[in-house]
Amino acid sequence: MTHTAPAGNRLRTAVAAAAAVTLGCAGLAALPTSASAAADALTVQYRTSATGAAADQTEPWFKVINSGSGSVQLSDVKIRYYFKADSATATYRFACSWAVKGCANVTGTFGTLAHPTATADRYLEVGFTPGAGTLAAGADTGDLQLRYYQSSWQSLNQSDDYSFGPTQTSYGAWGKVTATLAGSRVWGTAPEGNDGGGPTTPPTTPPPTTEPPAGGAILFDDFDYTGHTDPRISAHGWNIRSNPGGPGVPGATWAPENVTFSQSGGNSVMNLETSTAGTGESTRHTEVLTKAMKFKNGTYAARVRFSDAPRSGPDGDHLVQTFFPINDLKAPMADDYSEYDFEYLPNGGWGEQGNILYTTSWETYNPDPWQAVNQHTESRQSYAGWHDLVLTIDGSAITYYIDGQVFGTHGAAYLPERGMSINFNQWLIDLGGQTGTTPRSYDQGVDYVLHVKDQVLTPAQVGAKVAAYRAAGTAFQDTVPNG
Question: What's residue 53's pLDDT?
Answer without folding.
Answer: 93
